[in-house]
Design goal:
TIM Barrel, eight-stranded parallel beta barrel, two-stranded antiparallel ribbon, 10 helices, Aldolase_TIM, FMN binding, OxRdtase_FMN_N, Alkene reductase
Amino acid sequence: MTSLLDGYRIGELRLPNRVVMAPMTRARATADGLATPSMATYYARRATAGLIVSEGVAPNHQGQSNPRTPGLRTEAEVASWRPVTAAVHANGGRIFAQLMHGGRVGHVSVAGHRPVAPSAVTLPADVFTPDGMRPASAPRALATAEVAVEAAAYGAAARRAVDAGFDGVELHGANGYLIQQFLSSNANLRTDRYGGTVAGRLRFAVEAVEACVDAIGAARVGIRLSPGGRVWDMVEDDAPGLYAALFEALAPLGLAYVHLLAPEGDDELLPALRKAWPGTLIVNPGGQIGPRETDLAAGERWLAAGADLIGFGRAFLANPDLVERFRTGAPLRPTPDRASWYSGGDAGYLDHPGPQH
């Protein structure tokens, strides 16, 4: 029987186990998007994971969603990431950068301009700003020619990620951000080639992935998706059909993996998608942002159900040594208080030492 502690191979990367540290925004970058020495310590302490996927990183200035999140837009940002990736590699780890374009999930005070989106449909929710939670700004609908530019931005950021020392990139196509906005039925009201039909709604996702594949090779590219997910007011008509069509379009590219968040209350969708996806599948059993935290038992269940790797998010916050705790059966430290997740500074961030080397 396959175990979380068994090795696995993604492209040229040999993973010592099947535990993936899932991407989690921690808002510890500088105000101008630079990675910091504290971030190097944070990720290096978790390098025993089979694979680390970084927090969401803005691929361009249009894509900035939250304050104090890092970017891969400039040479200064690339240089700031090199000590982070070097620290992970020095501790024997592997790390992908998650490319996260916020789309309509944003505010003018964060990026200095109106957010862009598939359509001018305002997110009916409060978002993070430097002054606390405020109603999301009304987005500007991208012109047809601009959509291709935004897709190409993922490829340019992928090149910069590799230059910064990352082993690959994961496109953030989940949780209501730009890629899922194009996939959705309520945020994408377009009638051009990027909307309307299923083929139109998935076109942006495919073009963004193709841009990354062209830039750094398919073996270094993954994508995260949340089929049927409703975070940030998403609606997807016929999610099974939509994602089956997306998988059919992505399969010939030979990606490193697809990373799925387990759907809430739908025990049939994810197994069906496992059958539809011919490559490596990462499953995050925690599902959408909510009360569930993945543990060893949940991970082993999904491995038995056909997943190849298991994503763990909040369990890594207080347990940098999560893999060793799984190996020895040691109890997990409880998840830190939510107030510390995005609070800035080292408190609630570097409080727990990692494995001893």
